[in-house]
Amino acid sequence: MKKFNIGTLLLIGFLINSDSQMALAKNNTNQRVPFLEQLMTHSLKHYEVQNIKLENDSGFHRVFSINDGYQERVLRKVVYWLNNSSRVNGTSEVSLQKPSNKLTLKTANDEVITIEPAYKCVFENKRKTCAAKDGELIISKNSHKVQIKSQSLFDWLIVGWRKELNGPTKEELLEEALFTRYLYTLGPSYSDFFMCPKIKIEPIDGDTRRHLIFASALNYSGHHDGDFDRLTFSVRDSNLEGLQVTNEKIKKHISDKGSQNQCQTFD
């Protein structure tokens, strides 16, 4: 009878454990609620969206991915609008074969969803004329269609997506630079809190040489599973007394609404 050494047994155990983890991950993916069901219950999660592609009938297109920190905010915004949309029932609006603008959304569960304006069509003198119905959209998955109303998402689909920035503004860069400077004073145990930093600055007693800073950010590791923690702290910044950090707090497992408010204010 052959004998197995300890290294062989450890290798077998590692392979079995890896297979189990892969099977568990696959089961978790398969157990995700379908997109349209989440839409109806207003429970969509932005981190379950892999990317969205926008295109118009002029051939212009853009792609926003969950893997890009700044593009992720666009995904958050779109999901926020979808979750705050209302269902439109009993209408005669239709989708066109070649809409003026179309959004294609791919989920982590490999669902492909299309979003396009809803059109109202009329026949006059044997001619069919169609015009987009303001504020209304048709969401499709294969042959299943749902019509919703969201003025913000409609306006963004028609025009806004082409104006999205490819990176941070100068104000955001300055805010990130200041936040990083102050975060460094807290020590390495807080180094994961650099996602969606926000800073509010007030002069102390009207003295522009001394400032009170209120800072906050999310932990980056929460980006992978959607379970964010939020760090807040205050800083007294004076050219006479240096930096004094106080009131550092970490709030665990903040809500989806809390993380959305931290990262961006939506219409």
Q: Helix count?
A: 6
N- to C-terminal distance = 72 Å
Q: What is the 3D form? A: elongated
Radius of gyration, taken over Cα atoms and rounded to an integer in Å = 24 Å
Q: Give the CATH topology of the largest domain.
A: Dna Ligase, domain 1
Q: What's the total number of strands?
A: 11
How would you sum up this structure, described in words?
It is a single chain. The chain is of the alpha+beta class and 267 residues long. The protein has two domains: 30-163, Uncharacterised protein PF16224, DUF4883 (Dna Ligase, domain 1); 170-263, no CATH class. Helix content is 29%, strand content 37%. It is built from six helices and eleven strands. The chain has a seven-stranded antiparallel beta sheet. It is elongated.
